[in-house]
Write a structure and sequence with these properties.
- Pfam families: HTH_31 (PF13560).
- Keywords: DNA-binding.
- InterPro entries: Cro/C1-type_HTH, Lambda_DNA-bd_dom_sf.
- The structure is a single chain.
- The protein is an all-alpha fold and about 120 residues long.
- The protein folds into two domains: about 45 residues; about 60 residues, Orthogonal Bundle (434 Repressor (Amino-terminal Domain)), CATH 1.10.260.
- It is built from six helices and no strands.
- The model has no long low-confidence stretch (mean pLDDT about 85).
Length: about 120
């Protein structure tokens, strides 16, 4: 009977160790899966082929910048080189700008109200 108790204790300890190992492997797998989905977006090649700085896009920031300037989506689209409908889609998160469009957005982002008014006056 004593040998069975020792074997049972040994088996229970082995099972507990295996459960801990499975738990840590599952956690590591989740972390790798999260990193892969983030890395897949970040590692998409730029269409322009340039190794410039990576630009990030935020729909909310685009909408707030346009509101701050006090211009319509169509006017903002003229500055960026896209249609007003495209600006609406970007702001609502229905679409995302391409790399070249991100560069245009970045250049417009640095403009103030007077500069925007001047550029829109030149465009008309």
């Amino acid at each position: 009977m004593e040998t069975l108790k020792k074997a049972s204790v040994h088996h229970r300890a082995a099972i507990a160790a295996l459960r801990r190992q499975i738990s840590s492997l599952e956690k590591e797998l989740r972390n790798v899966a999260k990193g892969t989905s983030r890395g897949a977006r970040a590692s998409e090649p730029d269409e322009s082929g340039e190794d410039g700085p990576k630009r990030r896009f935020s729909a909310g920031r685009l909408a707030s910048h346009r509101a701050k300037l006090g211009i319509s989506a169509a006017s903002y689209g003229k500055l960026v080189g896209v249609s007003g409908q495209t600006i609406y889609h970007w702001e609502q998160g229905k679409a995302r700008p391409r790399a070249a469009q991100l560069e245009s957005l970045a250049s417009v982002r640095g403009l103030g109200r007077q500069q925007v008014a001047q550029r829109l006056g030149e465009a008309e």
